[in-house]
Design goal:
single chain; 9 strands; mainly beta; nine-stranded antiparallel beta sheet
Length: about 100
């Protein structure tokens, strides 16, 4: 599947560029994997994939406990989209496949 693999993403938030790594796997329309960042690491939740479009949620613990909701699309070895950070609004993210 076009989405499977390891990715490095950068979220352009008001606190500056926040980097995270993703390890993604797909099975049918389900997206699973792990997200690791300085703000918190853990398994993806509610992961979905439809062609090159994907969405997932990830919990962070810093600067405060919160669930981030990601939506994006894969184009070759690039990934881009937006992340909704609760009441703080949505921010763009971009990324590249690393493996």
């Amino acid at each position: 599947m076009a989405v499977d693999g390891k990715w490095e993403i950068t979220i352009n938030s008001p606190m500056g560029a926040q980097k995270a790594t993703l390890d993604l796997a797909t099975s049918g329309g389900t997206l699973t994997g792990m997200q690791a960042a300085a703000q918190g690491s853990g398994p993806l939740e509610n992961g979905k994939v439809d062609g090159n479009n994907l969405s997932w949620s990830a919990k962070i613990s810093s600067p405060m406990p919160m669930t981030l909701d990601f939506t994006g699309a894969v184009d070759g070895d690039k990934l881009s989209g937006s992340v909704k950070a609760g009441s703080f609004g949505s921010f763009p993210f971009t990324g590249n496949r690393t493996a």
